[in-house]
Amino acid sequence: MIKPLVKQLSQIFKQLCVWECQVKVVFDSLVVSPAGIFHPILLPRLYPPLFTLYALHNEKADEHYWERLLKWNKQSDVALLAFLGVNPKFWPFPSAPSSPDLNQNSHKAVEPNVAANFLWTMDDLFPLFQYVVVRARIRHLGSEIHLVQDLMEPHLENGELGIMFTTLKVTLTYPLLVSYPLV
């Protein structure tokens, strides 16, 4: 039973490789890989049991992360922004917000504080990104990151996407490393 399945899969891969070469010739900028074709087909069916395995594997770290997130999310926006070290000129309100939470148009309040030619550095971006991830309250972020990392194609690890993914991974580890409580 397994041998015919393996034989069929190997034939499909051979056909994909031939098709990939033809596509690369016709569409110079399009990169087709077996993973790029199979992920949309297989992942919808495999994701629930696969994610369950990843969640079980990362259960202890995810639980510690979730406990820290619950503590941090009890804080007001001002307290959390200050704790994470976000530069006050990026806060969507002067020093004290008019409402307890940020509204949907908060980016419009930040724009006047930042010049049009402002160069964003990771020192400015990381605390803001950390704030967004904390407020998003993603319960099994560690499991999600682990799953994506295992399924990600190597060419995506470099460049802008690689930097974004690395930033997300660091955002996960930061709450686990901070040992002092948020007051």
UniProtKB/TrEMBL annotation:
Residue intervals passing through the bilayer: none
Domain VPS9: 1-183
SUPFAM superfamilies: VPS9 domain
InterPro entries recorded: Alsin (IPR051984), VPS9 (IPR003123), VPS9_dom_sf (IPR037191)
Origin species: Cordylochernes scorpioides
Pfam families the record matches: VPS9 (PF02204)
Protein name: ALS2
